[in-house]
Amino acid sequence: MFRVLVIEDDDELRSMLCTLLESQSYRVSEAATGQRGILEARSYRPDLALIDLGLPDMDGTTVVREIRSFAPLPILVLTARTMEADKVKALDAGADDYVTKPFSTSELLARIRAALRRATRVGNALPVIALGTVALDLSGRTACGPAGPIHLTPLEYRLVECLARSAGMIVTQKQLLKEVWGPERANDSRGLRSYIKFLRQKLEPDPSRPRFILTEAGVGYRLQLDDTVGSEAVR
Ligand code: CA
Question: What one-character-per-residue DSSP string does the chain give?
Answer without folding.
Answer: --EEEEE-S-HHHHHHHHHHHHHTT-EEEEESSHHHHHHHHHHH--SEEEEESB-SSSBHHHHHHHHHHH----EEEEES---HHHHHHHHHTT--EEEESS--HHHHHHHHHHHHHHHH--TTPPPEEEETTEEEETTTTEEEETTEE----HHHHHHHHHHHHTTTSEEEHHHHIIIII-GGGTT-HHHHHHHHHHHHHHH-SSTTS-SSEEEETTTEEEE---HHHHHHH--
